[in-house]
Amino acid sequence: MSNSGSACNGQPSQAPSLSSVPGHGQPLWLLAELTYKCPLQCPYCSNPLDFAEVGAELTTEQWLDVFRQGRELGAVQLGFSGGEPLVRQDLIELITGAHKMGYYTNLITSGVGLNEGKIAGLHEAGLDHIQVSFQAADPEVNNLLAGSEKAFKQKLKMAREVKAQGYPMVLNFVTHRHNIDRIDRIIELGVELEADYVELATCQYYGWAFDNIKQLLPTHEQLKRAERITNQYREQLAAAGNPIKLIFVTPDYYEERPKKCMNGWGQVFLTVTPDGTALPCHSARMLPIEFPNVIDMPLQKIWDESSGFNHFRGDSWMEEPCLSCDEKEKDFGGCHCQAYMLTGDMHNADPVCAKSEHHELILSARAMAETVAGNPADLLYRNERNSRIITTDRLLKFSRD
Ligand code: SF4
Ligand code: SF4
């Protein structure tokens, strides 16, 4: 990968001075990544590659304190995520506390570890909403991608139970070249399970997905077909009076302009990772920025004053072509993680942008998707063993360099 030669060279770089940081919003959306533990092994997981080396998880009291501080800052929505949040034995206590504080709460789960009694307990604790993720609509592909032979059956059972207990439910399917051709079956499964929303989220290539891009990136033809079929279903379902909503998310690898990263860095979203590191975006941990920890700093100070949260606020960090671009208010230069992964410099324009000098990297990936077979046998699964191997390899490379 190329490097444009700016501040980023694997070392924490300078944040803009606070006097150059314009106003910012409130952290309306708080995401609590309670744990990196998970019984599944999805090869597109957005958790960091070195998750197995991350330190101790926050305690119940520490999490409740984060939620309280979040409410004081104006947070209204709280997502419980992971890893698999059901692994935390204090989940009910955390949800009860958050509910009493007035949050709208959402559980983002694989469904593995749920049972009828637990769903009832979550309801009693005041949980508002559940999102269940599936890997595919047929057991073979689902279980292959989840790295578990029992996952599909369990997910089906739990999705039915979630609805039976009166929850609004989102079903989330991460689509890629191994399941996107069955988009019709995926939508039908969503209808059958009476989901309120079906999120057809084409894999975004961060975290583990970036390492597996050769196996996962669909071709342009696959993507166009899936979008066409989704639109047909939308029309048919609406005509039949079915209220289900189908949300189709395209991968930015097939766009010419990047997406507006997290609706603006440090504007609306605040993620707290299992060890208390606070991030403006759940992927940002990969960046060579020193992010603050909720154990060391009050949330208000983190949000308003920390160099990590101020780093990409405003436009004083920008370089060309973004700096003089008349579209910079639309996307703020795109995704900094993507710029970092692909070019080695997080201050570059997101290479998805056709104006970027690195856009060729995206075009090459598209060309690669047309020619490689994308063999599932070559997938790198997200598990502790692989995480430790990757971390060790990186350390060895670092000491050699
Ligand atoms: S993406 Fe898969 S492996 Fe990652 S946390 Fe979710 S269920 Fe677990
Ligand atoms: S040059 Fe930068 S600001 Fe302009 S559209 Fe591309 S990414 Fe966005």
From TrEMBL:
Q: Which GO terms describe its biological process?
A: molybdopterin cofactor biosynthetic process; pyrroloquinoline quinone biosynthetic process
| UniProt xrefs under InterPro entries | 4Fe4S-binding_SPASM_dom, Aldolase_TIM, Elp3/MiaA/NifB-like_rSAM, MoaA_NifB_PqqE_Fe-S-bd_CS, PQQ_synth_PqqE_bac, PqqE-like, Radical_SAM_PqqE_MftC-like, rSAM
Instruction: Provide ranges: composition bias, Polar residues.
Output: 1-20
Q: Which residues form a coiled coil?
A: none
Give the EC number: 1.21.98.4
Pathway this chain belongs to: Cofactor biosynthesis; pyrroloquinoline quinone biosynthesis
> Which transformation does this protein catalyse, written as a reaction?
[PQQ precursor protein] + S-adenosyl-L-methionine = E-Y cross-linked-[PQQ precursor protein] + 5'-deoxyadenosine + L-methionine + H(+)
UniProt-listed Pfam families: Radical_SAM, SPASM
**MF (Gene Ontology):** 4 iron, 4 sulfur cluster binding; cyclase activity; iron ion binding; oxidoreductase activity; S-adenosyl-L-methionine binding
Hydrolase as a keyword of this entry, yes or no, is no
**EC category name:** oxidoreductase
Report the cofactors.
[4Fe-4S] cluster
Keywords, A to Z, come to: 4Fe-4S, Iron, Iron-sulfur, Metal-binding, Oxidoreductase, PQQ biosynthesis, S-adenosyl-L-methionine
The segment annotated Disordered runs over 1-21
What is written in the cofactor note of this entry? Binds 1 [4Fe-4S] cluster. The cluster is coordinated with 3 cysteines and an exchangeable S-adenosyl-L-methionine.
Question: Which ranges carry the Radical SAM core domain?
Answer: 24-239
Q: Which residues bind [4Fe-4S] cluster?
A: C38, C42, C45
Subunit structure, briefly?
Interacts with PqqD. The interaction is necessary for activity of PqqE.
- Task of the protein: Catalyzes the cross-linking of a glutamate residue and a tyrosine residue in the PqqA protein as part of the biosynthesis of pyrroloquinoline quinone (PQQ).
Q: Which family does it belong to?
A: Belongs to the radical SAM superfamily. PqqE family.
Which protein are we looking at?
PqqA peptide cyclase
Q: Which organism is it from?
A: Amphritea atlantica
Q: Which gene encodes it?
A: pqqE
